[in-house]
Write a structure and sequence with these properties.
This protein is mainly α and about 350 residues long. The chain contains 14 helices and two strands.
Length: about 350
């Protein structure tokens, strides 16, 4: 059975590629392990793969144990969760909005999470542990506003983008206003604005993993709903689906994924745009395979990008958000040009 796919003209039909999928997933697992070992082993002190394994599983008195456990391992694990969350959020948003350019960073979902997150960070720092909750509220609120602005007897892809840009601009203005009001605390906000994993530790990992686990599990459970909803509202209704209820449910899952990632590392764009498109080209559009493929590739991509960003100009560290923008902007312009 052919499956719908995002192309320059929207959701079209194409042949799936079931014969390649087992090989692709093996390759993705190898990439994930390679990015993990590269991330843990690369830095001011270079560690061979064997030293990385001894640092993780060896005795506490191993000479590189503290370097691995206290500095590099939490950062790499956090990068993996952030990449998986943003990539999966992009898959869901592109499906439920019927728009190949939908991405939590482009259509304002991340900005909504970022606005609420930065208000807590700068105005109410004592509530730091509640940042994911408030970021989720901000992301969900942004989604609702985008739907309200874009709805006119239905949802059209271009209206989604225009409404998302408007919401993103409004939220960005709010973030700038908060930074001006709390200019004496703006140093932390600069890293937040550029998406950075610098100085992240086990605290952020412990803060993020419950939300990631819950939202990624929900996304994997909902793959069949995504396959049906991309067929269009009329066909989905004829198959017995309550389209609006499922769209609200899937929006909440996408918002939780984006919000939890933003609360941990700040505004990190383009992961949710690049990864789903690459995985869709390789795996086809069946979400049973597309969602787990995006989870693996998103995790590997952000782990690798963060390692490059922190070592390329060592000892100066570049926020991973800048590295992702260098990769993502040309890809976005390519997609936009094809769509036009």
């Amino acid at each position: 059975m052919s499956q719908p796919v995002v192309t320059s003209t929207g959701w079209d039909k194409t042949q799936s590629r079931p014969g390649f999928r087992p090989i692709v997933f093996v390759v993705l697992l190898v990439l994930l392990v390679a990015a993990f070992v590269y991330g843990v082993g690369t830095g001011s002190i270079e560690l061979a793969p064997g030293q990385v394994l001894r640092g993780i599983f060896g005795p506490d008195d191993y000479e590189w144990h503290r370097v691995v456990w206290d500095i590099r391992l939490p950062r790499v694990l956090l990068a993996a969760m952030v990449g998986a969350n943003l990539a999966t959020s992009g898959v869901i948003l592109q499906a439920i909005m019927g728009n190949p350019l939908a991405d939590p960073g482009i259509i304002g979902v991340s900005s909504g999470a970022g606005l609420f997150g930065i208000v807590i960070l700068l105005a109410f720092p004592a509530l730091y542990m509640m940042v994911p909750v408030f970021a989720f509220i901000g992301a969900l609120g942004a989604c609702i506003i985008i739907y309200m602005l874009a709805w006119k007897g239905g949802i059209q892809p271009m209206r989604i983008i225009l409404a998302g840009v408007a919401v993103s601009t409004l939220c960005s203005a709010g973030i700038s206003a908060v930074m001006v009001l709390y200019s004496d605390r703006v140093q932390n906000a600069l890293l937040f604005m550029n998406g950075s994993l610098s100085m992240r530790s086990w605290g952020e990992v412990q803060q993020l993993w419950p939300y990631s686990l819950l939202a990624l599990a929900a996304a994997l459970v909902c793959t069949r709903r995504l396959d049906v909803i991309v067929l269009g509202d009329d066909i989905a209704r004829s198959m017995g689906m309550n389209v609006q209820a499922n769209r609200i449910l899937l929006t909440a899952v996408a918002a939780l994924l984006a919000a939890s990632a933003v609360s941990a590392v700040g505004l990190l764009g383009f992961v949710g745009l690049i990864v789903p498109h690459i995985m869709r080209l390789i795996l086809g559009t069946n979400h049973t395979f597309l969602v787990p493929g995006s989870i693996l590739f998103g995790a590997a991509l952000v782990m690798f990008s963060d390692t490059v960003a922190r070592t390329l100009f060592s000892p100066v560290e570049i926020p991973v958000g800048i590295a992702m923008a260098v990769l993502g902007v040309p890809f976005f312009l390519f997609l936009l040009r094809r769509a036009m």
